[in-house]
Amino acid sequence: MLKHILFLLVSTSLFAFETGVKTFRLTDETRDRPVKIEVWYPIEQGKYEIVQHEWWNKNMDQVRDAEILEGKFPLIVMSHGHWGDRRDRAWIAEDLVEAGYIVASVEHHGNSWDSDDPEFFLTPWYRPQDISYAITELLNEEELSKSIDADKIGFCGFSLGGMTGIWLAGARLENLKIDSIDLSSVELPRIVLQALLEKVDFEKCTESFTDERIKSYLLHAPSVWGFDTDTFSNITAPMHIIVTSGDVVLAPESHGLFLNECLPHSELTLIDSLANHNIFLTEPSEVGKERLPEWVYEVHPSVDKYETQDYIGKVSAMFFDRSL
């Protein structure tokens, strides 16, 4: 088992490409489910006027609907965390674009800032289906299909999005019986919960959602709750896990570090600092801070968020460079 323990270092950018962005608002007709996708991609340097995003500070200089640079690029598909959205890790998307990747971030309906549905708490298997649907649609999209290298598709997931990646890589959840769910948990909605428990078919959570088109997996502070650990042996694709020792939301000993010990083909980057779970989220602008909850951007005084994210971006790009 390959193990890499890497500690926080100051890094310099080696990236070259400027970033364009498009938004796709689709509907998966088979599930009657909306799927929004934010796609960032390389554009020609110096051709366009770069515009700073209103909500975000970190590396969010981009050009909307610019022409994609000619050539074939690997595709990285992203999955956000609980109550996040497709743009909350735009900083890593831009870092990857600058390194020569197309990045597509999927927004999971029912579990985002814009669409909070209590039923989603109990039906997380919609997430891997969203990712597979997005890959299919992007590979068939007229303009993007010419630019995506379909043989080089990677995945980047944060928190519950990391759990989504574990599922897509081949693991399966245990059957979540109704009587095993803690009704007092703060992670579960309090409204109409009992009715939903009776309604949901939990057998679906044990199904396989493996997508063999995805060749490697990058997990940022992943959740491993609920998995049948015996099925971790199904995961054969390269996987790199990045966690922080200061994460009090998903303690690495119970999640990322534990997963790394269970996997036969994994790498680990441990950031030894007081950086918490939200270190993986984009730093908002002053406008963004007026609209977003404080937990999105508050960090420990000893943590330099930009420096930490620069390091994570470099490690992430290097992993995809060697695994795709």
Give a verbal description of the structure.
It is a single chain. The chain is an alpha/beta fold and 324 residues long. The protein has one domain: Alpha/Beta hydrolase fold, catalytic domain (Rossmann fold), CATH 3.40.50. It has seven helices and ten strands. It is globular. The two termini are 19 Å apart. Mean pLDDT is 86; it is low at 1-15 and 183-192.
Portion of residues in helices? 10-25%
Main sheet overview: 10 strands, mixed
- What is the CATH first-level class name? Alpha Beta
Low-confidence stretches: 1-15, 183-192
Radius of gyration: 19 Å
CATH structural fold name: Rossmann fold
* 3D shape: globular
- Counted beta strands: 10
Order of helices and strands: EEEEEHEHEHHEEHEHH
Distance between the termini: 19 Å
Overall structural class, as computed from helix and strand content, comes to alpha/beta
Describe how the helices and strands are arranged.
Blueprint: E1 18-28, E2 33-43, E3 51-52, E4 61-64, E5 73-79, H1 90-98, E6 102-107, H2 126-140, E7 148-158, H3 160-169, H4 193-199, E8 214-220, E9 239-244, H5 256-262, E10 266-271, H6 286-291, H7 305-323
Parallel strand pairs: 1-4, 5-6, 5-7, 7-8, 8-9, 9-10
Antiparallel strand pairs: 1-2, 2-6, 3-4
Helix pairs in contact: 1-7
